[in-house]
Amino acid sequence: MSQGLPAAGSVLQRSFAAPGNQAQPQSPEDDDRKVRRREKNRVAAQRSRKKQTQKADKLHEEYECLEQENTVLRREIGKLTEELKHLSEVLKEHEKICPLLLCPMNFVPVPRLDPVAGCLPR
What we know:
The protein is mainly alpha-helical. It contains three helices and no strands. 66% of the residues lie in helices and 0% in strands. The longest helix is centred in the middle third of the chain and has 70 residues, at 28-97. Keywords: Activator, DNA-binding, Nucleus, Repressor, Transcription, Transcription regulation. Belongs to the bZIP family.
């Protein structure tokens, strides 16, 4: 192998042999085609970047909406948790004085179809 020249079959040698890499004078039609192709590519790239930006903006808006919804739901969870605590305390206090729970006769199972009737004294 001689010094300074690429090995036979190497990528470098093939790139030297490629028709686009040879220094040939280009015709005005080739120049026009190249300019049109570059312009078309530039416009396509702008369109792609705009679409990507719009997608990112839409995702950001969706993120903001979800954050707000999450905040509202967390507040609601807090309110419902407090209501549950309060109602549990009320029930606990009621169970201490409820005549239905204190009477041993109320523990005799009697089938009733009406769920409200189950709360009434016998």
